[in-house]
């Protein structure tokens, strides 16, 4: 499947079946969902058929992802950004109606994991982004230890080198607030948190970071970075959160012998 912005990026073919409720229990335990106070329900958000042979994963349960899943004959969809966020309009109208209708008509389950997927020590977004970018974690910071802290592996002598590496590995030009010539020694402290984590810059500074990476950036973040002398690299919300759900999908496929497709719906933010 490849239609411009939509691409199927990974596929594991197998022929076994897992029961929906069994998978839900497995993931509740694997991701320790009861430990998190989150902005959305973690687990099965929409119930489809009980037998799962084909799983489609993606970052966000957008209409485009659901349509791709229908085309791939998915029994279930696994995402990082699901539905029913705290404070949202509860009515089933407009965008929400179209999404839910497509899921329900096709009897496809929606599994969504937000903070538990950010935080998993191996399969999570922060862990997987560290692997992709060559970041070596050794500490945590911020509320609920959501931020990760560590060093950059060898090969990025300056901030500019690190930005170039991010561009090459994420396929996206990051926004760098700082001096590209700034040296990054082997012991330089780097903080990171995937997604919309611009509000954690202050915590990263307090924790001793010299460089902070996240997905999004806001107007005030730029001033805090400049005035603190701590560099900020905004790498893209979607781009930094492509890896956790993919790793979790692969893990499920290996565990239960089912077919898994990761579908990337491009998002420039
Ligand atoms: Zn996110």
TrEMBL record:
Keywords in alphabetical order: Metal-binding
InterPro entries, per database record: DUF34/NIF3, DUF34/NIF3_sf
Keyword Protein transport listed: no
Keyword Metal-binding: yes
A single cellular component GO annotation: cytoplasm
Positions of a divalent metal cation binding: 80-81, 118, 237, 241
Single GO MF descriptor: metal ion binding
Similarity section: Belongs to the GTP cyclohydrolase I type 2/NIF3 family.
Designated name of the protein: GTP cyclohydrolase 1 type 2
Organismal lineage: Bacteria, Pseudomonadati, Pseudomonadota, Betaproteobacteria, Burkholderiales
């Amino acid at each position: 499947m490849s239609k411009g912005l939509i691409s199927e990026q990974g596929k594991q073919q197998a022929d076994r079946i897992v029961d929906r409720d069994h998978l839900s229990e497995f993931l509740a335990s694997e991701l320790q969902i009861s430990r998190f106070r989150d902005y959305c329900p973690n687990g099965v958000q929409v119930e489809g058929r009980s037998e799962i042979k084909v799983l489609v994963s993606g970052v966000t349960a957008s209409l485009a992802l659901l349509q791709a899943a229908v085309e791939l004959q998915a029994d279930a969809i696994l995402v990082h950004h699901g539905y029913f966020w705290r404070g949202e309009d509860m009515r089933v109208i407009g965008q929400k109606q179209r999404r839910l209708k497509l899921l329900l008509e096709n009897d496809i389950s929606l599994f969504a994991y937000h903070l538990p997927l950010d935080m998993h020590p191996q399969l999570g977004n922060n862990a997987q982004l560290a692997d992709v970018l060559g970041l070596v974690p050794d500490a945590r910071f911020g509320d609920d230890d959501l931020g990760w802290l560590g060093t950059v592996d060898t090969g990025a002598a300056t901030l500019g080198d690190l930005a170039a590496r991010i561009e090459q590995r994420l396929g996206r030009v990051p926004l760098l607030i700082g001096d590209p010539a700034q040296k990054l020694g082997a012991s330089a402290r780097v903080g990171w948190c995937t997604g919309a984590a611009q509000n954690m810059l202050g915590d990263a500074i307090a924790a001793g970071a010299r460089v902070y990476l996240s997905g999004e950036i806001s107007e005030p973040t730029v001033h805090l970075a400049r005035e603190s002398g701590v560099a900020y690299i905004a790498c893209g919300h979607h781009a930094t959160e492509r890896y956790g759900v993919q790793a979790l999908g692969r893990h499920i496929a290996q565990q239960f012998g089912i077919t898994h497709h990761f579908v990337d719906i491009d998002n420039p933010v």
